[in-house]
Amino acid sequence: MRVLGVDPGLTRCGLGVVEGVAGRPLTMLGVGVVRTPADAELGQRLVAVEQGMERWLDEHRPELVAVERVFSQHNVRTVMGTAQASAVAMLCAARRGIPVALHTPSEVKAAVTGSGRADKAQVGAMVTRLLRLDAPPKPADAADALALAICHIWRAPAQNRLQQAVALHAARSPIPSKGRTA
Amino acid sequence: MRVLGVDPGLTRCGLGVVEGVAGRPLTMLGVGVVRTPADAELGQRLVAVEQGMERWLDEHRPELVAVERVFSQHNVRTVMGTAQASAVAMLCAARRGIPVALHTPSEVKAAVTGSGRADKAQVGAMVTRLLRLDAPPKPADAADALALAICHIWRAPAQNRLQQAVALHAARSPIPSKGRTA
């Protein structure tokens, strides 16, 4: 299966595409970062993240998008930007009927390094080895996006089929929303 | 000026459109709520919020969208949904070149009741009076959305012209975003 991993952020949103199945060598199809300037209007930064996501979805046609699950225990300013960028990433995927899976940072670290407390260097080193790259992807957000994709491919072979069925069904029958006008 | 106020939320996203200028009687043009089911996939809920926002922007053509500024001091689960719904609301506005303004809950309460610590009932009562309605809009999220729009119209007549110029300029020259592919 082909998975687009997203390490969400407004300043840097890491994106990485990995293809493969659990138990077989994996292939990296793309890695990069969408950056938005810190001094731009928030709405414009979200539009830039959306445009980046759309470009990557168009180019790589992933079967699933794996996004880092955001917690609010971190820095207040950072977590808001992360939550907002992740919302845009999930929206872009869901609009196309592509299933979205969320993984916590410790799930991702445990999947690729064996330890939920691994540091960025360890994650980068394992991503480099597992995808047979010449050097760790830079910046760390790009490596983290690849790690998310790898984590997803390894963790949930059965769950993926279920998620695809659910997302396809949801895309065919969108949620009715209500509103009234004076 | 015509302002769409948004009280962001995934379960209930309040929307209210108010037209007027500071110092003159205000007119309510629409009020409502976009609801998404708590048991739906997060991506699908964000798509439903986007569809609701698009419908309201199409119908009411606001000159500005005023969104409640989200803080992460509240309940962890709630604040994430609020941040995500607000991201979708800001994205929809910015994509159309409509300026987005953020106001804190206490700014809104202070603007419509005179006290930053007013309760929901007070805000509802003042919204009812200021817009000359027969009864307070229900649910509270809908009244809060109207209060946001009123707050914006009253607070920043000079600032609005600046925001419109900035948003128009940004919409004409989108932020370049980077990415590379293997």
From TrEMBL, chains A, B:
Binding of Mg(2+) 2, residues = E68
EC number(s) of the enzyme?
3.1.21.10
The active site lies at: D7, E68, D141
A GO molecular function assigned to this protein is: DNA binding
Q: Where in the cell is it found?
A: Cytoplasm
NCBIfam families xref list: PRK00039.2-1, ruvC
Which HAMAP family does this UniProt record tie to the protein?
RuvC
This protein's name: Crossover junction endodeoxyribonuclease RuvC
What organism does this protein naturally occur in?
A: Streptomyces humidus
Which taxonomic lineage is given here?
A: Bacteria, Bacillati, Actinomycetota, Actinomycetes, Kitasatosporales
Q: Which gene encodes it?
A: ruvC
